[in-house]
Amino acid sequence: MSANAGRPLLGLIEGFYGPPWTWAERDRMIDFLAAHGFDLYVYAPKDDPLHRARWRDPLPEPELVRFDRLARRAAVAGVEFSYGLSPIDLGFGDRSGVEVVVRKCLQLAARGVSSFGLLFDDLPVDLPPSADERTEAARWQGSVANEVLRAVRESGAGGRFLFCPTEYCSSVPTPTPYLRTLGETLEAGIEVFWTGPQVCSHTITSSDLTAVTEGLQRRPLLWDNYPVNDGEMRWDPHIRPLRGRGADLPGACSGIVANGAIEAEAAKIALHTFAAYWRDPSGYDPETAWGPALTAVAGDAGVAAALRVLGELASRSPIEPGQEPPVPWLEAFWTRWETVNERDAATTEVEAHLERLSDAAVHLIAAAERRPLPREMEQWARKLAAWVETARSALGVMRGRSDPMEVAARLERTLAMPHRVSDGRFEAFVRRCLDFHE
Asked: Active-site residues: which are they?
């Protein structure tokens, strides 16, 4: 195993569905990880065809050159680089497929990659339902992992070997036959990913890992699905701080590996807070950690302030589940509006808040021309600007200064913009303004 294998590690996995990061983004990410105490970078983007859909194809020379260079950059920075492979249709007894996996890993080992991951998550066909069949599947997957491990070790590659099971999350208090068989089959040095009680877990504590630790006969390596924003989460930026991770978690796992967001620069905000949590789990406070993260990643006080405004409104994520949180000043408007002599003051107050939101949106849109982070956030900034103008026009309806039909049309245009920024709260406010007119 690698030199760091004996202590809990902090890592990142590029493991999302959607456009993979560019090589330049990976270079910058390696530098970021090194600067903030991360140990590991796992390459496993689901939509890289050679990682998953076309995993049987050998890596062409230009790709090998890129991985060679990235692995060397990571090694110089003190970050272990791991290449993940997802053989999604490797059926039971498929010896030719196993040989493909071995050859592909040896291709990379010859170019300086020393750490590998074999990922059996999200297979196109579910595991069979019976315990015996699932046990058989686990034994087969484990034997493949052991064979690949032996091959890369014989080649001289001595880095970590990672494994993602097909059962990779559960809140059941006892280990399944599948997990028990994996634990019995996998070589002791193989580290096994686990996402917690759910795929995207709201909270994770040491007690959530008791059953999986028993079944696997080793502490799991947490694959934390935050700040990932693929699938239905694609329209949420996930720029808020890590929360919901117990202070006792590091002692119960072999490490934590955060799954990055599609937006590589924006992902660094949450990753910065992962580092703060990992340094001091018992003293970690999400809101306290968020400010330094915004400042450090933005590199500009104005952009950091604008991102905070956006993040306070675009807060939907698996670690903050449930309905959108209220926007207090929108809610307070209606209480004051019911008192006739407070209507002017209520309107003035809301307009001041909308001006603050407008300033943040304008700042991010302008900065998008020259900086990668606000460029990634530009569509959310434009959605925020659209909500500001829609809410302003709705206030005009209340005072007889706006055409309700035009406001209703504006509302539909804003709702059609897919990126989400407190959509439910703003929509409710605008519709209530329109109902008031009626």
From this structure: 122
